[in-house]
Each structure stands twice: as C-alpha cells, then as structure tokens.
Amino acid sequence: MPEISRRDVLKAAAAATVATQLSWALAADPAGAAPAEAAAADPVKLTWLEGGTPAEAPGTTFGVAWPQGTLRADQTFALTAGDGTAVPVQSWPTAYWPDGTLKWTAHAVGATAGPAENYTLSAGTPAKADTALTVDTRGGTIDVDTGVIQVSIAKAGAHDVVRSIKRGGTEIAGKAELVVLRQPEIDDDYDGSGAGSRWERFTGRVGAVTVEQSGPVRAVIRLEGEHARGSRSWLPFVIRLYLYAGSEAIRVVHTLTYDGTQEPGKAGGDFIKGLGLRIRVPLSDEPYNRHIRLAGADDGFLTEAVQGITGLRRDPGAAVRTAQVKGEKLPDISTWDTRVSSALRYVPTWGDYTLSQLSADGFTVRKRTKAGHGWIHTTGGTRAPGFGYVGGTSGGLSFGLRDFWQKHPAQLDVRGAASDEATVTLWLWSPEAQPLDLRFYHDGLGEDTYDEQTAGLGITYEDYEPGFGTPYGIARTSELYLWANAATPTADTLVAQKDALTAPPQLVAAPGALHKAGVFAGLWSPVDRSTTARKTVEDRLDLLFTYYRDQREQRRWYGFLDYGDVQHTYDPARHTWCYDVGGYAWDNSELSTDLWLWLAYLRSGRADIYRFAEAMTRHTSEVDVYHLGKWAGLGTRHGVQHFGDSAKQVRISTPVYRRLFYYLTADERTGDLMHAQVDADQTFLTLDPNRKVRTDGYTPGDRHALSIGFGTDWSGLGWAWWTEWERRGPKWRTARKKLLASASTIAAQPNGFVQGSGLYDLDTGAFAIQTAPVVAVSHLSASFGLPELAAELIDALDENDIPGFRAAWLDYCRYYNATPAEQKARYGASFKASLVQGHSRLDAYAASLTGEAALATRAWTKFRTGDGYPDASTSWATTKINGPTVLNAGTDAPWISTNSTALYGLAAIQDLALVGDVLD
C-alpha cells in the first residue's frame, strides 16, 4: 500500500464529511426498503447519566436502539419531559438493520426548555422550538444563531476558527485561533546543549469547512486544516463546533494528528512545546467591574477583580465591596468613600493570570500587572478542572478544557485583562512543561534481525523492530467549552458550568430498553443478582472494575497521551504494574478490555463505568492507532509506549471497541475513525502481520492473494465492513460485498475457521478455497471481537447471505474447548486450547443456538475451572498496601492481570446472558 499523504487524508476526510451530511444523516438509500408496515416501537424512557437534573445542560446528543422491524427509515420522533411538556428534538438515523428498519437513532436536545429529570422518546412528530437554531452560509462566514448567541465561523483560508461570538448585539469573544509552539530539540539534562534552542509559533490555517448539521436544534460545523508558519505546514487538525438551540455555549472537539519527526539520539526534531486554542475577549467595563474566575478543586474558585477595591487601607463602602466580590456592577463611583475614588489610579490592575497544572496532583496560580513585570504567586491546589472566566458586568467568556488535570500538563492563561481586549489561551499541552517527547525509549538493544527480536520478545515481551516505534500518524482528541455570558456569572452558575465541563450532561436509555432492542446479538443482559450464583459472578465483576478504577488513581494512569488506558501485567516483586517492561506495560486494548467495559456499562447503566470506558475509547482510538502514513488504519500492540511495538495490526484499530460509544452519543469523530477502517485491508499489501514467523516463503504484494488470518485479522476488517454497512456509510456497498464474500469463503474452507488463514482477494473480498484441510488455531483468534462479530452476523443475516457461516462458526465454538480426542475426530488433528475461561463464551453461544445442555454445562465448567480466574485458586480479595513498599498507598492484588480480567468480564457477561439458567 503506498504511503497515504496528508493531502489525501484531508481530501478523503472532506469527502466523507459531505457524504455524512448528504447520505448518512438523511438516511438516503438505506439498502433495501423498509417493510411497508413496521410494527410500533415502545416509547423509551431517558434519564441523565449521573442521575437527577443537571443545573446546566447546554445541549446534549444521545442514542437509542430499536428492535428490528419496528421503525421505518423515515420515522420521526417526539420527545416529552417527565411532566408531559413537549420538547423540541432533532433526530437522525445512525444505523439500520439489514431489512432497512432503524437500529440506532441519534437525538439532540437544546437548552430552550431547561433540563428535566427524565424524558420519553417515542415515534411521533417533533415539537417545534419557539426559537429554532439557524445556520446561514451565504456570506463570507458561516453564521449560527442559537437564539441566545450568534457565532460567526471562518471559511477556508482563514487563521481564525471562530470569527466572533455575540450575545444581544454585544461581542463577547472572537478571533479564536489554534496555536502550536514547536521546539527543535530538548535539553534533557540541563547541560546547556539545548540552550540555543528557540521555539517557533505556528497558527492553525483552515483548509476546509463543512456544515454537517444545520438545525433546528443542533448545528455541527467541521473545520480542518494544518498549522502553518511561513512556507511550512504540519500537524493536521480537525475541529468540530457544536451549538444547540437556546444555548449560550459552544462545545469544541479538537483532534490533532502528529506528523513530525523525532529521532532518538539525533539533534533536531519536531517537539511540541505548546498546543492550545487562543481566543480574544473585548472588554469595555471599568477595570473594577472586570472579573477573573479560576476554578480549583472541590467547587473552589479564585474570585478576583482586575482592579480590586477590597482589602485596601481605605474602605470604599460595604455595598461596593459586596458587589465586587459577587461580580455585580459596582455602585456609581460618586457614592464611594472619596478617599478611595480619588486615589483609584494608585491601585494596580492585574491583567495577566496563569493556572498551570503540570501533574495530576498539583496546580499553581500566579498573576502580574502586565507583560514585562514580575509575577507574584497567587495560590495553588491539587486538581483544577480547567475552567475559568474573564469579563465584566456587561458580558464575558467562560471557558474550559475537559479532563484538564487528567491529561496534564495543561494550562489556562488570561492576558491583557486590564486593556481593551483580553486573550484567553487554553493550553492542551502547557508551554511550561518539557516539550512533548515522542522519541523511542531505547536504542534497539542490538535487535537488528528477526531472530534477535524474537529473543527479545522472549524476555521482555516486547516485539521490537527498527523504525516501527514511530509516533508519525497518531492523534489525540480533546474537548473544550465556551460560554458567552451576558454578565459575570453568579457563583452558582459558575459551579454549574464547571460541572457541565467535567461531566457533560448525557441522556441515556436504561439497560432494559437497550436490551429489548436486541442490539449486540443477545450477548449481554441487565445485571441480575436474583440467585446466589448470579450474585457471586456480579460481585466479582464489580470487584474487577472497582480495582481498575482505583488503580488508575493509585498508580496515576494520567497524562496527555496516557489517560484512558490501563496497564497490562502486574509485578508482585515491586508491587507495581510492569510500566517499564516491554509488552507488559500499557494495555492498548489487548484481549478486548474496551469491549468488556462497554458491555459492563450497557448492562448496568453505571455512570462510573461509562466515564471510564469513554476515556478509554478516546485514548485507544486515537493514540494507539495510526491515522496518517503507510500504517494508517492499523493499531499498535501493547508496550511501554503506546506506539512503540512493531506489531501494527487491525486487531487494535477494530471498530468494535468504538462502536457502542458512537451509537450512545453519535460522536462524529468516532464515526470518522470507524469509517476510516473500511480500507484497512489495503495495509496487507505492504505489511504482513506474521512476517517474523513465516516459513512458507510468502511475501505481501499480490492484491489477489494476500495472507489474512481468520481470527484477529478478519474480525478487525469484518467489524469495519459491518459497521459501515449498518451505518450506510459512503462505502457501504463495497463493505457489504467484502463482508459477505469473506464470511462465505471462510465457511467454505475444508476446516472452516480452524483452517486459520487464507489468501484474500482485495478486489472481491473473497478468500481462495483451499483443497487440503489445515488445523491452525490460535488462542488469540477469538480474543479481539471475533465471537461478537460472528454472533451479530448470524443474528442479522440470512443463511443465503453467508452460506455455511453459521455451521462453520458453531463448529469452532463446539470444538475449541472440546477434548483432544473430539478435536482429532472432527478435524484430523487436535490443538491445544488456552485462555479457556474466556473461550467458555463460545460454548455458551453454541449452546444457546443449538439447545444442547452439555455445551451449556461445559461453558460454566470451563468458566469456573479454566485458566484466568478459576474458582478454586482465585482469592477474589485485595489487600491494603502502604509505604515504604509502594510510593502511593492503596490496594494490592497480584493475582489480577488485564488479559484475564478482560476475558473473565466478557465470558461472565455473555455466559450469564446466553446460559445463565444453567448457572441457576
């Protein structure tokens, strides 16, 4: 596969965006007409993820699933609040069943009606908003009016992504631009070798703008481009701006893709010194009527005026003092004590503030009067939420960067608040930290040949290969919020805005409603503790999740690139995870950790699991996957650095790990990522996943005979094709052709899935049918979404669509955990099964389809006795651990490993859903 250029990526993304607007969102040609008469779907009740009623809900988008055959593709929807009030809602399809009926739909709610505690969504006619959101593209800018604020957005060629934000005719903010500071080298040891290094400032330049949605409740504007300085452009970006009817807020989703160079041991490189969004805020109030607010931990706020008149030697009066602290307009200066009003010019104005969060555990705040003068220490604390405000009594801007301390180093800057125009910079990477260092972490250790690399794999579990530990093409997505306020917000309003930043209000359907829809092929069921046996399994699932949630805090699994991932293997000698030992370090979705968490959320509805899975999806879909270059579409196996291992495979980039987040939120960035995987089969032209262990002389290059495995390879490709098909994406017809052809020709192999691999035709999607039976079974084949893909295809498609597939998959399920004698009798040879506990879900699935009681019994036997967490030898307990044994006190459970946890979680959830009655 030729290397994908940046230009090609941007053009393809733009084309996909247009297709999204014209085909996906409008449900054009949903592949087979829906039945003339579709059954009525039951209404779905919705509640807020965190419960209760949020004090601030600037607008939200949520997803709902529907049973097959119940809703036509052109169905409209009505939303009512708990008190029966009709609520305006904007709806669009996000997935279809093969018969063309709706499978998943997305719905947007604005801020016009104010949040209710619960809602009901049903088929019907949506209520019209009193003031609908409008989008005007006729002029030189794209102008969005939410009914509260008016936002002017730049078109192609501009350096500002937002031209202006107005409210009631008053300009609140504008001239928003992306800023990158590039540094050519790092002075690692402060020895002066980098003393001459100077950073360069690059600003974002918009290359294309697309209106993806234009109301009446929700508008989505996509801007893409690169950061430019002089003749050089680098660091492609995609910005999406989300605006909702009746809202004063803008949600900004920012994605940056790294395309620089950092060579270990060599001088010079592309180090990111700072990365941020900068926006101007006009100021017209008197300095004593201007206010600075910076949020700290536990609802704390730094509450200051640009020119403070409290604490002075002379008292202006109680009414004046009280008004300034509250952020209200001060009484006329003629009413003040004249000893203050006459000497006001001697009271300094503080125009510059910085809140810097360089670690997960501490932030500092400092201020100065203006540039060129000294800073003074203001305060500090533990974990800032990344929220602030600058403005005056006639209006101002609240601003925030989500996951601020979790994705440190981050920073908030306010500059020039004593002048006519303040500047706010939300730094995704703080310029006060060391530059972002993406150099590979060791010198190769002499592993120059495949034999040496295999030997290295045997000791550190790291699959190293020169040149493969590159960050070129990885990405990171961040979320920012801007509020245009008519005046300085009250303390309660500021807290509400801060809370909406840290945990954006999200409407969700209950597990029962999602389960009733039949999504995910019946492989999960709502939490059920009705029997002692079920309760035991449920309690153990809770223990495992709680342990990982607490380990993230104890081990500080935070940081700009790291937040969202977990570690792979534990080192009981050091009482820490193997963060520095090759392939035992970061997990990178190994054995479907992401999928376990999303299924755990689906069945429980727990907010803490959702937020954990959300952070993981944001990380693993961006940092662990290449989005540019010759490996675009491939992910990286687990390691010390997320991009460091030489195993670049679709088992990591597979859409199955992103799919549920997308359907629950309709997140467009996640949709882009899943669509990008449709052509991942092209990578097999140049990169053979099995190149280091080949003995058959195969080399890639023949597009009609590419060696692709039926397990980790095909499942990753299959999930991309199936998701594109059900979304009716721009390439859904090609995706359907390849999915059906590949599934059918796997089934037609002499030994079906047990055959192991085949020669794939890139144009037709079919595998060549082999003449001789082969037994080639890997314990990993069914560990990266293969059982879930097979179940969905069997559930949704007809035997005529994929002839023989059901039988071939049932054979694999039946014999993986069978005795060697049974395997040999069926296939002519036996094979050693491992990860038996996780594979018990294959037994359960086969039992659920065939009704064979022996398979159901075997499922629970293998679950209880197989490798992983067998009942007889697993303690199911954690212990307290303190210093000096560990750096941070917490809990210890040396018996836990992430491989075992992910497979235990998937097996427990699926076994309970499929054959739980046998457990009872």
From TrEMBL:
Organism (species): Streptomyces caeruleatus
Residues covered by the PcRGLX/YetA-like C-terminal alpha/alpha toroid domain: 504-919
N-terminal signal peptide: 1-27
Keywords: Signal
PcRGLX/YetA-like central beta-sandwich domain boundaries: 134-497
PANTHER family in the cross-refs: CONCANAVALIN A-LIKE LECTIN/GLUCANASE, TAT PATHWAY SIGNAL SEQUENCE DOMAIN PROTEIN
Name of this chain's protein: Tat pathway signal sequence domain protein
Domain PcRGLX/YetA-like N-terminal RIFT barrel, residue spans: 43-123
Domain of life from the UniProt record: Bacteria
Pfam family membership, one: PcRGLX_2nd
